[in-house]
Amino acid sequence: MSLDLDPSLAHGDRDSRAFWSAVRDGRLLLQRCSACRRARFPAMPGCPYCGSPDATEEAASGRGTVYSWITVHRALDADHADEVPYSVAVVTLEEGPRAVGRFVPGRPPRFDEPVTLAVTPSRRSGVLWFAPLDEAADEDPDRRSP
Ligand SMILES: [Zn+2]
After folding, report:
1. How far, in Å, from the CA of 69 to the mean position of ligand 1?
2. Whose CA is closest to 28, among 79, 98, 86, 84?
3. Listed residue (91, 94, 97) closest to 130, CA to CA
4. Structural domain spans, the chain
5. Left (φ > 0), alpha (ψ -120 to 50) or beta: where does 10 sit?
6. What are phi and psi of 51, to 5 degrees?
7. DSSP 3-state assignment of 1?
């Protein structure tokens, strides 16, 4: 199983072209409904809450909490055989939608754990990564407490 986002979609269509462009720039785009103001992901032609076709795009804050996860012990793709065990998390983004991505190596995620998002452009498209918020802050000197 490749964790790259689907390369066949990497060029996008009318509704997802901006999303794929942002992924290549290391950002995750959400759509925000112009009528009811709810955020949605992935990109879709209409609001699943109110049906309005009007939306704006905005970058995700990068913050969320772990909703669920799996830990892969036997890679389904030879490209990832040397990475097992690794975890794939479903994260509820601060804006509301859920996204799936790799959890940083070292340990599995914890339920409801605060995480931060990174989008790394890959050879073909991009990969979403989630890291525990506290550990990510430890690695970023600008986010450390005094
Ligand atoms: Zn709406």
Report:
1. 28
2. 98
3. 91
4. 11-59, 61-146
5. alpha
6. 90, -5
7. coil
CA atoms within 13 A on the CB side of 9: 13
Q: Which CATH architecture has domain 61-146?
A: Beta Barrel (2.40)
Give the pTM. 0.81
- For 60-105, write each residue's pLDDT tens digit: 999 999 999 999 999 888 888 898 999 999 999 999 999 999 999 9
Instruction: Give 99 Cα–ligand 1 centroid separation in angstroms.
Output: 19
Q: How much is the mean pLDDT over the chain?
A: 85
Cα–Cα distance measured from residue 32 to residue 39, given in angstroms and rounded to the nearest whole number: 4
Number of residues in the chain: 146
For ligand 1, the distance from its centroid to the CA atom of residue 34, given in whole angstroms, is 7
Centre of ligand 1 to C-alpha 36, Å, is 4
pLDDT at 10 over 60: no
In the chain, the amino acid numbered 107 is R
CA dist., res. 57 & res. 139, Å (int) = 29
